[in-house]
Specification:
- This is Utp4 protein.
- Strands 23, 24, 25, 26 and 27 form a 5-stranded antiparallel β-sheet that branches. The protein has a 4-stranded antiparallel β-sheet with strand order 1-2-3-4, with no helix packed on it.
- Among the domains are: 53 residues, no CATH class; 155 residues, 7 Propeller (Methylamine Dehydrogenase, Chain H), CATH 2.130.10.
- Strand 6 and strand 7 form a beta hairpin.
- The protein is globular, with a radius of gyration of 23 Å.
- The chain contains 3 helices and 34 strands.
């Protein structure tokens, strides 16, 4: 294996049938390579694949549609961005240009270390964060505990709020605002989920149905009454936020969930697993969707080692799902079935956008963001006319991290003197792009 220029420190092998003995190796230079061993009958092995330097463990994002705010989790700090509404919209068939994001605030959790600006900050990396739907609260956690902040965008102020000791002193593996004042907290250690009333500052419910730490949370439903959770052991559960009880266990088959979301109607929970299987679950009937059986993502669209990181839906296109990862977007139309013979294994039509790098997050916007079919519709929206939404197109917001920022986010690699280069240019951390 000649892909590494420095010492190899760790190797992991996937022995499953689908993995086909795929090897993942890492070295002192901080780079990951995916390769397959030399097989009999072949003169040479396939060229190793180098994984992206982008780390989803330290870089995530959440959105507040009501206030057009995006919260970016970036290593040890949080960045709050505002997306202004464009002055005009593209004509029908034209390309839509994303608004230029404006950085409003940079938030650091208080700690013992001193930052470049002289303020106290935590020396630990953030492990989770979330922003409320109305943009008035921000929650964040590192390994020392979880914090809740009140946010005032007009005055550019952040005020820390008190939390119950069970939440404040526990690191959170996942955070999710189920409503403007209701926050779901999945602790890093243990297998419970706390429901926190952010207004009263108390825990109103604790769910103990999981047997392993919870890694994913999703909230939705026609009235926002459901909370879905997935743990590291592969179990997926649904809880009622109205009655505060366990509602159902979702059968997802082999593999653990890597992405969850609700469809545009809010009646179905969409779960994607490590085995690249997509499952739609009817929450009301507590059964799999009657007209859409679990289906596999075609291998020609998604590599074995790739992971689906999120699910996006659009009210204007209820039959479509968009699955996204850190280097691709993949759309499936659940109603447009393939014209196929009996030997075909792909019942649905797919569209792939490949070649993307360092996707931080993708959001299917549930409300119109002025991407109308003509300028007249934009003017109607500004006047408050109800019939303007009929001419709006489905809108998604994709965020990317620049290669320079992804490289700068890695730990400084150990390099022997003979590999060091004199006069190496300094990398500039440009942050996320919209």
């Amino acid at each position: 294996m000649l892909c590494h220029s420095h010492d190899v420190r760790a190797i992991a092998i996937d022995n499953t049938k689908k993995g086909r003995n795929t090897q993942v190796s890492a070295g002192a230079a901080g780079r990951l390579f995916v390769s397959k061993p030399l097989e009999s009958g072949h003169d040479k092995a396939a060229r190793p694949f180098q994984c992206s330097n982008f780390s989803p463990l330290f870089q995530t994002a959440s959105i507040s549609e009501d206030s057009r705010l995006v919260l970016c989790q970036k290593g040890q700090t949080l960045e709050l961005w505002y997306l202004p509404e464009p002055d005009d919209a593209p004509s029908l068939g034209g390309s839509a240009r994303a608004p230029e994001g404006q950085l409003l605030l940079t938030i650091s959790l208080a700690g013992k270390s001193i930052g470049p600006d002289g303020t106290k900050r935590s020396a630990d990396y953030l492990c989770s964060s979330a922003i409320s739907p109305d943009g008035k609260r921000v929650a964040a956690s590192d390994m020392t505990g979880t914090r809740l902040f009140g946010l005032s965008v007009s005055e550019l102020q952040v005020q820390r709020a008190s939390l119950p000791i069970e939440v404040a002193r526990s690191a959170a593996r996942a955070l999710k605002f189920c409503s403007p004042k209701l926050l779901a907290v999945a602790p890093w250690h243990g297998h419970v989920i706390h429901l926190l009333d952010c207004k009263e500052k108390n825990i109103i419910a604790t769910f103990e149905d999981h047997k392993a730490p919870v890694a994913l949370l999703a909230a939705g439903g026609p009235g926002g009454e459901w909370l879905a959770s997935a743990d590291l052991a592969g179990a997926v559960n649904v809880f009622s936020l109205d009655g505060l009880y366990h509602h159902a266990s979702v059968p997802v088959g082999h593999g653990a969930a890597t992405a969850m979301g609700f469809d545009s109607s809010g009646k179905h929970l969409v779960v994607v697993t490590t085995a690249h299987v997509v499952t739609l679950y009817d929450i009301e009937s507590q059964s799999l969707a009657s007209d859409i059986a679990p289906f596999d993502i075609p291998k020609r669209h998604l590599a074995v080692h790739a992971r689906v990181c999120g699910v996006a839906t659009f009210p204007e296109a209820p039959d479509k799902l968009l699955l996204w990862g850190h280097n691709y977007l993949l759309a499936v139309n659940l109603k447009a079935r393939q014209a196929r013979d009996d030997s075909s294994t792909e019942p649905y039509t797919w569209r792939l956008w490949a070649g993307i790098r360092h996707v931080l997050a993708f959001f299917g916007l549930q409300k119109p963001w002025s991407l109308a079919t003509d300028s007249a519709a934009v003017r109607k929206r500004k006047r408050g006319d109800d019939d303007a939404e009929a001419s709006l197109l489905p809108t998604g917001l994709a965020m990317e991290v620049t290669p320079e920022a992804a490289e700068a986010g890695l730990p400084t690699p150990f390099e022997r003197k003979k590999f060091q280069k004199q006069g190496r240019p300094k990398q500039i951390d440009r942050g996320p792009e919209f």
